[in-house]
């Protein structure tokens, strides 16, 4: 069984992470983030953020014995300018729009869950 894992979605209902006080996890400059969380932007660099999300991915393998994860909304994680107007994002120092912290996070999660993936 594959699980649709959505680390880039933060619903605004009472049960979603949008109700979580993420002030220490978010950017003060909204042009630097990638995932909107109640008008704040989740960063993928702080260890407490990546550890929380990576542990969540591993949880599904450990507790529910899923065979693999399908990561949803990857584009919103990978591109600094995803769904943003000019002036609402800052490019990397070389002018590129890739979110290098999100790329590193996805690589980290992939390395962590690969040993858990069960062959059909």
Secondary-structure element pattern, one letter each: EEEHEHH
Query: Low-confidence segments, ≥5 residues, pLDDT <50?
Result: none
Question: Strand order of the main beta sheet, please?
Answer: 1-4
Roughly how much helix do the residues carry, as a percent range? 25-40%
- CA gyration radius, whole angstroms: 15 Å
Distance between the termini: 9 Å
Shape: elongated
| Overall pLDDT | 79
Largest sheet: 2 strands, parallel
Number of helices: 3
- Strand % is 5-15%
| Quaternary organisation | single chain
Descriptive tags:
120 residues; two-stranded antiparallel sheet; 3 helices; two-stranded parallel sheet; alpha+beta
What report would you give on this structure?
Helices cover 31% and strands 12% of the residues. With 120 residues, it is an alpha+beta fold. The strands form two sheets. It has a two-stranded parallel sheet with strand order 1-4. The protein has a two-stranded antiparallel sheet with strand order 2-3. A hairpin with a 2-residue loop joins strand 2 (35-37) and strand 3. Helix 1 (47-64) packs parallel to helix 3. The N and C termini lie close together (9 Å).
